[in-house]
Amino acid sequence: MERLDKVLSNLGYGTRKEIKQVVKKGFVEVNGKVIKDNGLQINPEIDKIVVNGEEVIYRKYIYLMMNKPDGVISATYDNRDETVIDLLYYEHQVFEPFPVGRLDKDTVGLLLLTNDGDLNHKLISPKWHVDKIYYAEINAPIDEKDIKAFEEGITLDDGYKCMSANLEIVENLEDMAKVHVTVQEGKYHQVKRMFEARGKKVKYLKRIKFGTIPLDETLEEGEYRELTEEELTILYKSFE
């Protein structure tokens, strides 16, 4: 059971103060009866709510895909930098979503946001073996020794040994390389530190896939959309 004003506020119908006025004016019905108490306890999954003649479609969770831009941090709040939550419309902010894992401030690409804690746990927990695939540009060519080292598990500067990762060469040039890196962890600056352990530096990093969800390339950096029902279905089936 939840308060009526909280439910309507979470669905984007206004602030609690605004909703209180709407309720007082008799514009809200619950199960066919006009309600004047904004604190009424309701079951939003069962009770029929109508606001100003329009039936409320209730949903508890929200699932978003964002093409994260450079310079924005993967956090719900920060008193100095712009966060990914700041990029959301109010109608989505009211669900209080949070980023699934993190992307570094200067890393771009696919970021999932949700308020579904169970799904978040499964996506970021190494025990579920969810692949995160990155496109990276490196300041030096990649060789077979690098590929084997990633496969065997890179040891980072703090002594932590990473799980086996896949390093695939997209293009090798004289003074740089374009690669795809697949990891199943999300340690701090992990991909960058893995290459640093090999004496190389990441110049550009973009996440292009998370689990079964590829980045929607039609999204410009800073843009986002809700996941489709098909994407969600495929995502959940991967945990069965």
Question: Which secondary structure elements does this structure contain, and how are they paired or packed?
Answer:
Layout: E1 2-3, H1 4-10, H2 16-24, E2 28-30, E3 33-34, E4 41-42, E5 49-51, E6 54-55, E7 63-68, H3 90-93, E8 98-99, E9 108-114, H4 117-124, E10 132-138, H5 144-152, E11 166-172, E12 177-183, H6 190-196, E13 202-210, E14 213-214, E15 224-226, H7 229-237
Parallel strand pairs: 9-13
Antiparallel strand pairs: 1-4, 2-3, 2-5, 5-6, 7-9, 7-15, 8-9, 10-12, 10-13, 11-12, 13-14
Domain RNA-binding S4: 2-62
Organism: Clostridium tarantellae
GO molecular function: RNA binding; rRNA pseudouridine synthase activity
Salient structural properties:
alpha+beta; Alpha-Beta Plaits; Structural Genomics Hypothetical 15.5 Kd Protein In mrcA-pckA Intergenic Region, Chain A; 240 residues; 27% strand; 7 helices
